[in-house]
Structures are given as C-alpha cells and as structure tokens.
Design a protein that fits this description.
The complex is a heterodimer of chains A (316) and B (395).
Chain A (H helix, E strand, L loop, with lengths): L5 H4 L12 H12 L5 E5 L6 H13 L3 H4 E5 L5 H14 L9 E6 L6 H13 L4 E7 L7 H6 E5 L5 H15 L2 E2 L1 H11 L3 H14 L2 E2 L1 H8 L4 H12 L3 H15 L3 H11 L7 H20 L3 H13 L3
Parallel strand pairs in A: 1-4, 1-5, 2-3, 3-4, 6-7
Chain B lengths: L8 H5 L6 H13 L3 E5 L6 H11 L2 E6 L7 H9 L11 E6 L13 H11 L4 E5 L8 H5 L2 E4 L5 H14 L3 E2 L1 H11 L3 H11 L5 E2 L7 H19 L3 H5 L9 H15 L2 H24 L5 H13 L16 H8 L1 H18 L3 H7 L1 H10 L8 H9 L5
Helix pairs in contact in B: 4-5, 7-8, 8-9, 9-10, 10-12, 10-14, 12-13, 12-14, 13-14, 16-17
Classes of the chains: A alpha/beta (316), B alpha/beta (395).
Chain lengths: 316, 395
C-alpha cells in the first residue's frame, strides 16, 4: 500500500468503512458472507468508491491470497480485446490458490470497450464462469451491451452526499493534523460534487503548499473555473461574439483542466443567474440538455461545446 | 479564372499590358466577323477571364456553356442552336462562349462535338471555344472551322508582381523570396499561385522564409484548402459532399479543419446552423467509435461538409484566411512530451488502481507539487521526477 498519497492511505480497507454507499456495501457484504458472488457491474461517476468496493471484496474474500486470485485490468489502457482476452485466459487457466470457490477478475472502465470487444468479452465471461467471477466498472451502464448487463448484478453508485464527504474530509484532516477552514471544507464539497478522490487530492496538494488551508487556496489548486470567468464567457456569447467566447471557454478548459461535461454542468447553473427573460433561460436550458446528451454520445467534446456557444449567440 | 474572386479581377486588369497581344487577338476576332475562335492554353492563366473582359469592352451579351451543363447533341442545340440564329432580346450583339471543351464527354454528351461543328458552320454570332488541350482528337474536325489562338502561360515576373499586390492588399508582410518560389512552382498558373499564397499565409500577417520548409506538407495543406473552399466559401451541395474525398486525411481531422475555419467566414446565425450540423455529425462519429458502425461515416461526413456548406445563404466572397486547427498544432508541438507523460501515468495508474487517463487527470498535478516541494515520491525514478519538474502541465 502506498502511504504517500492520501487516496491510497485513506482508501477504506473494509466494505463497512465505506462512506455513502451503505445499501450497496450491505448487499455486497452478504455476498461475501455466503461466499457466493454473481458477476457484478458497478456503474457510477468517478471517485465514489467503485474500485474501492472491488478491492474490499477481494481483500475480505481472499485475505492473504489476494495476489493469486485477483486480477485487475483496465480496459482503457490494455490495448485491444485480444490483450484483455489473453490476460484473462492466462489468469483463469491456473488453479485457484487456497480454498475459495472462484477467482475474481475486475475490468475497470469497461465502457471504454467497443461493442465488438464487449461481444468478445461476453463469450470470455461465459467460458470461464465456473472458475472466475467478473466485476465490471463503468461510468455509464448504458454503454455496456445488454447481454453482459443481463449476466451481471448491476449496482449503481451515487455521488457521496455532502455530509458523507465532509465526514471523510474531516477524518483525513484530523489524522494528518492539518488545519482546514470550515468554509474551505464547504467549497471543497461544492467543487468535487461527491468525488472523494478529487477532494482528497486537492486537500493534499493544498497541505503541501500551506499549513492552513483556506477557501482561496482550495479554489486556486482545484483549478475550479471561478463562476465569474465562465459567466463572462457565457455573457460574451450572448452578446454575439462567437469567436471570443469560444476561445474563452477553451482557455478555461485548458487552464483548469476541466472536461466538457464539467463546463456544461457549470454553465447550466450559471444560466439561471443571468439577467435574461425566463423564456430565454428555459430555451438555453433545453439546448444545454441536448448538448450534454450529445456529448455523452459523441466523440469530440469541444465540437459540442462550440455548438452550444453558437446557440447562445442567437439568444441576444 | 473562375476561382478568383471579384476582388482580384481589377488587379489582373492592371496586368493587361503583359497580355496585350492576346487581348488584341480576341478583339480583332470580334471585329472581323469571323465565325469561331478556338483558344487553347494551360489551366489557370486567364483564358475565360479575358474573353469576359473583351465581351464587356465590345458590349456583347455573353451566352455561355461550360462543364456544369449537359452537352449532348440535344442540349447543345437547345441552348445555343437557337441563340446562334435569332437576335438578342435586348438588341445587343451576342457572343457564345463554350468553355472547358475538354470536358465534353464521348459517351454522356453523345453527338455534342458533331453538333458544335454544324453550329459553328451556320452561326450568325461569333463563337469562342476554350480548351486546355488542342491536340485532343475529339476536336480535330472542329479545329478546321475555327481560328486558333494560343494563350501563353503567365510570365514569371507578372505572377510575382500580382502576388505582391494581393499581399499588399491583404496587409500581409511576406518575404520577397516566397513570392518567387510560389511563382516558379506555379509554372504560369495564376490560380494555383494565389492558392499557394493563401496556404502559406494562413492565419498569419508576417510570413518569413522559414515557411517554405516542409513544402511536402504544404502540398497536402493545399488539398485541404481546396476542400475548405468547397465547403466554406462555395455553396454547391454536390461539390461539398465530395470535398474531402481526395484529401489524404482521417475524417476526424477534416472535421477539425472545418470547425476551425467556419467561424472565420460565417456570421452568427450561419455559425449556429453549421454547428448544429457539426454537432450531429459528431454524435455519429461517437457511434462509429463505440459501435463500429462504419456505415455511419456517411452521415458524419455528409453533415460536416454539405451541412456546413448549405448553412449559409449564399456563397462567400473574398479571401478567407484559413487557419490550421489549433488543437492539431497543440498536439503536434507536444507529441514527445505527451508520450512521456503517458508512460508515467500508466505507472501511476497501476499504483492507484485507475487508468492512465484518470491518473493524469487526478494525480499528476498533486505529484508534481510533491516532487517540487519535497522530492520524495517512492514510485517514480529520478529521471521521471526531473521530467515532471520541468514541464508545465496542460491540465
């Protein structure tokens, strides 16, 4: 275990220690008690405990033998389904070490696999189902083909609510002996929207740079686009200056390292603070929704953002 | 000259001296009462343009047929057969111009050439025919009934001075040597010379000699520019659909070129319309990637070319300062750096149970801070640490 990085140091070791996913962890715990797990599909946003849950299951099930009976693969880094398949084959072929009913293979970011690759995966799952259980992690279960979904018990992880996240943050602060303002905790919750990994990393970065963590510091490190900057960009669009607004938004994305979806979500709350007619607000909200949907379906986030900006330009 | 904008025609007129003999030849043909004149010469040297100019000078009504019209026997007869016999509606003298004679196809335009021969024999108005290749066997009979005029390619110096005028007009500060290299490469073809200039000056006001490096790449860029003209400047649906067919690039890259350049030429409502198409095209692109439905490539390219093309009310005039997509430039200049970062992030991903992508997004900046402040991370080697110290992260 790596203790330099807090996300690892404070990663829950047991299901029962996990914050905010109680219903899920209870059911998972009962699977473990019966030593009988189905294939699992974990869906949910980043940093809410999907991987942690997997690691907990493996640890609680295999204890010392975890190394031999547990395989972690990442779909977005292992190039091609063949690599995935070979890795799985080699792992599944060797016998189970110790007295366990099966081995566990976890495939992280399974939604990065193409439909074709998923079809191949499905056959692989069937082939090794007697000796292996599969746990698939993904952000959107809709991107996983039905035949796989129907073979798995699906668990939907929700973002941690603010109380859970606060508790988690304060626990780390106490253990690391750092001084963090109450206001800083609040804004950390707002910025991270239930993403425990993100909040931990921001907090650790701040703590290296300063003894006392202030709200200012959090904003600076998190690279959270100050609502003002993005608001400015939206206003520029509404004033009809497409090119300027486009470059402002792209700058914000690059400087703060935000994804298109991050931006869209911020914009959707900004719209309601603007001094425009209610009708225009709803029209814009409609466009934003459509574009967010297309962003999930499409390939290039910047194209979709630019399309949204061009729509704002018409709202004059 | 059809591709040259209205904007540059006056510039060309001022270069008339260099081609005086040819203009004179056309004018004296018009005065002579002879029936047909066949002009031949390389493409892009001003054949059509000078005919237009002379017909204006002599007050002729110009009746023209070019490659976009069908030219089988029936069509030719109906378009110019009658014209050649009856008077003009406004009492003007008429001049019939048959452009791009090479384009008359042997199969589709069956009987076209034979019909032309009979029209040339009987016409009561002057006819000017234009072709690139005088030796084409198709027109061997036709030639006998025409006077023949050879258009020389434009002189090197003429092209240089023309390019200079355009650069001056556009407020471009261009190194003298660049004009000369472009003019030489054009081999007398003004149209391509101007396009080359447009390519080399894309998005810049100051152009130094260094720009002449990587001419191989420029060639490719020229193809892109031609495609962009079809999509962004012109408004011909059928042309736009096939604009990128012969450009050697991935559909995704073509996409970036279009989106980068359309805001330069379009106004706001047009931009919004065009982006609606681009956005739809991108959704299809996503479906291709995720489901491997390559059939959808058709819709992706249809929306991103033809969709963008018809989002404007009429074709755009003037010189468009096309730019290279900023995203591509960024990726290019950071290629080796990105490779190293990726390697480090793969390592981080293994350490922190996530993909390299998430590692880059969530951990890299934290680790950079740790190295800078304390230099104590166990999971990276010294070389990797040094590398992370030196770079400024994009995100």
């Amino acid at each position: 275990m790596n203790s330099e990085i807090w996300t690892e140091k404070y990663r829950p070791r047991k299901l029962i220690e996990m914050q905010g996913q109680k219903e899920i962890t209870d059911r998972l715990a009962s699977f473990i008690k019966e030593k009988n797990i189905p294939h699992l599909l974990f869906a949910g946003p980043a940093g809410v405990g999907k991987t942690t849950a997997v690691l907990c299951i493996a640890r609680e099930l295999f204890g010392e033998d975890i190394k031999n009976n547990f395989l972690e693969l990442n779909a977005s880094d292992e190039r091609g389904i063949d690599v995935v398949r070979n890795n799985i084959k080699n792992f599944a072929r060797t016998g189970i070490i110790g007295n366990y009913p099966f081995k566990i293979i976890v495939l992280d970011e399974a939604d990065a696999l193409t439909t074709e690759a998923q079809q191949a995966l499905r056959r692989t799952m069937e082939k090794y189902t007697r000796t292996c259980r599969f746990i698939l992690d993904c952000n959107y279960s809709s991107k996983i083909i039905d035949p796989i979904q129907s073979r798995c018990a699906v668990f939907r992880f929700r973002p941690l609510d603010n109380n859970n996240l606060k508790e988690y943050i304060k626990n780390i602060a106490k253990n690391e002996n750092i001084n963090i303002e109450e206001k800083a905790v609040e804004s950390l919750c707002i910025i991270c929207r239930g993403d425990a990994r993100k909040s931990t990393n921001i907090m650790q970065s701040c703590s290296i740079l300063n003894k006392k963590i202030t709200e200012e510091e959090i904003f600076k490190i998190s690279g959270y686009a100050k609502p003002d900057e993005l608001k400015e960009a939206v206003l520029t669009a509404i004033s009809g200056d497409f090119k300027k607004s486009k470059s402002m938004v792209l700058d914000i994305m690059i400087n703060y390292g935000l994804s298109g979806l991050d931006i869209i979500r911020q914009i959707s709350s900004i719209v309601f603070e603007l001094d425009i007619s209610p009708e225009s607000k709803m029209k814009m909200a409609d466009k934003i929704g459509e574009i967010e949907f297309r962003m999930v379906e499409g390939a290039d986030e910047t194209i979709q953002l630019e399309a949204l900006i061009s729509q704002f330009c018409l709202q004059k | 000259m059809i591709d040259l904008t209205e904007k540059y025609k006056p510039l060309l007129v001022s270069e008339l001296e260099g081609r005086k003999s040819m203009v004179d030849a056309i004018l004296s043909f018009l005065d002579s009462g002879k029936k047909a004149l066949l002009i031949h010469g390389k493409s892009g040297i001003g054949k059509t343009f000078f005919v237009e100019l002379c017909s204006k000078e002599k007050n002729y009504e110009l009746v023209r047929v070019d490659a976009s019209d069908r030219r089988d026997k029936g069509s030719i007869e109906s378009i110019i057969g009658n014209t050649s016999k009856y008077g003009s509606l406004f009492g003007m003298k008429k001049l019939i111009l048959i452009d791009e004679l090479d384009g008359i196809s042997g199969t589709q335009d069956r009987g076209g050439i034979t019909e032309l021969v009979s029209i040339v024999k009987e016409t009561s108005y002057p006819i000017i025919l234009i072709t690139n290749d005088i030796r084409d066997s198709k027109i061997s009979t036709l030639k006998k009934y025409c006077e023949i005029l050879n258009f020389d390619r434009m002189h090197f110096q003429t092209i240089v001075s023309m390019l200079k005028k355009i650069a001056l007009n556009e407020g471009l500060n261009v190194d003298e040597q660049i004009f000369r290299v472009i003019a030489k490469k054009s081999e007398g073809d003004v149209r391509s010379a101007i396009l080359d200039l447009q390519v080399i000056c894309a998005g810049k006001n100051q152009v130094s000699q260094n720009e002449l490096e990587n001419l191989g790449y420029r060639e490719k860029k020229k193809d892109v520019f031609e495609a962009l003209e079809k999509v962004i400047k012109n408004r011909d649906l059928n042309e736009a659909v096939h604009a990128f067919d012969n450009v050697d690039m991935e559909p995704g890259t073509a996409f970036l070129w279009v989106s980068e350049n359309l805001p330069i030429a379009y106004d706001i409502p047009e931009i919004a319309k065009a982006y609606e198409f681009l956005s739809r095209a991108d959704v299809f692109r996503g479906r291709i990637h995720k489901k491997q439905f390559w059939r959808f490539l058709y819709y992706q390219s249809l929306f991103s070319t033809a969709g963008v093309c018809i989002s404007k009310d009429s074709e755009k005039h003037g010189w468009i300062k096309y730019q290279m997509p900023s995203k591509i430039m960024k990726l290019w200049s950071t290629k080796s750096r990105r490779h190293k970062i990726k390697e480090i992030c793969l390592k981080l991903g293994k350490e922190f149970h996530c993909s390299s992508k998430i590692a880059e997004h969530s951990y890299l900046s934290l680790i950079q801070i740790m190295i800078k402040k304390k230099n104590e991370v166990s999971f990276l080697n010294d070389e990797e640490k040094e590398f992370l110290k030196t770079i400024k992260l994009l995100n």
